[in-house]
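Hi team,

Filling in the usual template for the complex we talked about on Friday. All components are listed, including any nucleic acid strands or ligand strings, so the model treats them as one assembly.

SUBMITTER: L.P.
PURPOSE: interface mapping
COMPONENTS: four
RESIDUES: 302
SEQUENCES:
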Amino acid sequence: MEIDRTSWKLLKALEENARLTYAELGKLVHLSAPAVAERVRKLEESGVITGYGAKINLEKVGIPITALVECQVYRTKEREFKALVLSLDEVVSCHNVTGPYAFILKVAVRSMSLLDELLERLIDLSDTNTMMILSTPVDRKMPLGIDQVTE
Amino acid sequence: MEIDRTSWKLLKALEENARLTYAELGKLVHLSAPAVAERVRKLEESGVITGYGAKINLEKVGIPITALVECQVYRTKEREFKALVLSLDEVVSCHNVTGPYAFILKVAVRSMSLLDELLERLIDLSDTNTMMILSTPVDRKMPLGIDQVTE
DNA sequence: ATTGAAATTACCGTTGA
DNA sequence: TCAACGGTAATTTCAAT
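RESULT (copied from the run log):
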């Protein structure tokens, strides 16, 4: 789909705050509310916008510990590993990447002992390297550059 | 804040789809729409829900390449590195972690040549290890377990 | 611009500390 | 007895057309 500067602005605004009304979005891009609604509808239909989600503060719900776990999966255990990862509630994200560590997980847990349990299950199928997340200075879903627009 | 099973269900539902109406949420948890609205309002006020955002498909907007970059920052360049990372549009997330690679970035770019440019800037301030993301089997914001509830 | 739906507000009843 | 929570109904606002 064709993304011009206006749609890019709409995407950035909606990524930051999905509760903006069409009228408010219209003021941002100098368009009428129905015109904005039509653009947003097209972005949704074409799969550019795949949904809307609440942003949750995990610390505030009693899940203060997040870690990145690099997993070098044993050659014969790939299938089993994938199934395990998909079944684990604590796994927040899983990236399959190039390089010796084929999988990078982000996990979120209530306590260190639960992290320990989790790692023991992963260690059966892979060599792991765990990095505790101390802080997250940046966490967006989209690069910011307006120059990235295809036009 | 106190999160019971009902609020946990609301959080999971809203994380997946923030456009659910209070009436629909109410059916999920067997509560009336205003009762749900009141719970959600409290979750927002207490900072459990920090906002609502559109989910964007980066491939569809012409940004098909994402990578994880581990950065072992030179001791004297930490401040400079942080400033650089905050200034880079292509950086989608930045985690400060334990271990020799103090920072793990996720970057999203339009082309390999832009990734190359980006890495060159990072390399001035750190030793980097880049892993291209091939696929992302899991990408949530919240662990799924209802058992994680504090009650 | 008009209609329909959803959010919001106000008000009341129940329960449990 | 009162504080917290949920229900109902009326009003307002927003989105769909």
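MY TAKE: Residues 81 and 125 of chain B are 6 Å apart (CA to CA). The radius of gyration of chain B is 20 Å.

Thanks, L.
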